[in-house]
Write a structure and sequence with these properties.
Layout (H helix, E strand, L loop, with lengths): L1 H11 L4 H11 L3 E6 L4 E4 L1 H7 L3 H4 L4 H4 L5 H7 L3 E8 L2 E12 L2 E11 L3 H14 L1 H9 L3 E6 L4 E4 L1 H7 L3 H4 L4 H6 L7 H8 L3 E6 L5 E10 L5 E10 H33 L9 H13 L6 E4 L6 H11 L7 E5 L5 H9 E2 L12 E2 L1 H4 L4 E5 L6 H13 L1 E2 L8 E2 L3 E6 L3 H6 L5 H7 L2 E4 L7 H19 L4 E2 L1 H9 L5 H15 L4 E2 L6 H4 L17 H20 L2 H8 L3 H9 L2
Length: 585
Amino acid sequence: MQAESNEKMQQSNPDNSLTWLKTIINSIYNGIVAINTKGQIILCNQSAAKLVDLPVEEIVGRPIKEVIPGSGLMHVVSMGVPMVSQRLKINDTFVYSNRTPVWENGRIIGAVGVFQEETSVEAISTELAIFKQLTREHDLLIESSYDGIFITDGKGYVAKVNTAYEKVTGIKREEVLGKHMSQMVADGLISHSATLQVLEKREPVTIVQQTRGGIEIMVTSTPIFNDQGEITMVLSNVRDMSRLKHLEAELDKTRSLTERYQQQLKELQLQQLQSSEIILQSPAMIKTYEAAVRVAPFDSTVLIQGESGVGKEVVARLIHKESGRTEKPFIKVNCGAIPENLLETELFGYERGAFTGSNRDGKAGLFEVADGGILFLDEVGELPLNLQVKLLRVLQDKEIKRVGGNRFRTVDVRLVAATNRDLQEMVESGRFREDLFYRLNVIPLYIPPLRERPEDVVALIQHFVKKLNKKYGMNKSLSPAAFKRLYEYHWPGNVRELGNVMENIMIMSESTTIGVEHLPKHFMKDRDSNQEAVVVKDIIRLGEAREQLEQKLIEMALRKTGSLRKAASLLGMDHSTLSRKRNRR
């Protein structure tokens, strides 16, 4: 009925520009709302009424804050500056709004807001272009655009240019208004025209264009069609490429600085790791320790694997030190050193009267003692199957139950486990629960044996010489031959064995220079003695003899190559198979 009324008014008085403007506004797809300086709505089109789900007659005259809370229109009235491309939620619809003050004779008389549905930006852009041609608010919105706007009619003649375009290109609007795009190219104002390509291809076009002053701009031109499929205008969006390139250069500079800072941070972390407790030079160990530092702030369960003596506890303590639990307890439990019948009560505690000889008040287990901190389960592969079930519950539910008790207690404990055994092989043979293995193996860390990282052997020898000289007030050193013999030794006991050997020779040698003769007896043997022929002293089962020979060959290959993978290649076998066979000895 309102449309019919507007049509009758237009027919009766075709010169009534206000009626004509209202008709146009109600035809626009975008929601349009205008207010006066008191915040009362004086204009609302059908699209805006649809957004707020109210009839137009119930909207006009009401305060804007009641109809569209958070519209920002009163802020525009008070500040006198436009606000463009602001995201806003009206009922359940997200829109982008452009809000502009309305001026008359140098004073603000209100504000107008244009609301575009987020899901139909392309359609809204077309409607907005038409609206801008026909109304003063349209011109204000174009002028408030940060990007350059350039509009031609359907034949390629320039119809409108905003101030941003003038600033970006250095071309004044009076130089181009009314000109055909081909003339602009001929006059050297621009290198080539996206608008002409749009008129030819009848589809959006994006190009990089050069202006008269050599400025590079990126132009995206979009055709606007009428109902008959004819191009009625071409809307071009223009951006300064030099600005974009400057931002790109700044981004590259920032990336470069970030990479440099990251490298410096790694160096500082490495310096921190090179403390009296942690000595490392080999890439494999640096990678392992970097991984430990990286996972330390998180509460994920960590499984540290490696031979005896490689330093699994040192890594566990590093994780504790670098975590958010550093002020809380670090409790170590050697699962292989505690008798099976006592291990359960040590871990989970017991209630009063749980068994004969128990503390009459009961006892908290190590899980409770470690609450808030880290519990380090060393040699976790030695856990009996019945305790593996209870450990699994702790990992899943963060709850423990004391021996002899009937209630569960919540504990906040991060678990770090370690083993020198092949848990995967134990799972396959039924000696370790598969579900517990996967719960423990969330963050696996592998510490290679000392024979696979010769760089660390050198650093550790130097470290122990310096440490022991300082501790005992000595001034001893190693002869080159002794140093070489220690370096070439395969160190089956790893860092622990190296530390013990160094303390032995530093204390027991009377000379200030420690030679080969001061090394333990097994270092005095011919290094190639393992290449002797097989000696059979007694009858044994073939399977056992084969296993002994395999172990002998594995030791020789590892001593010769110093690398698990190289030894496997030398023996003609997969390195994982070699690792499994080596761990059986």
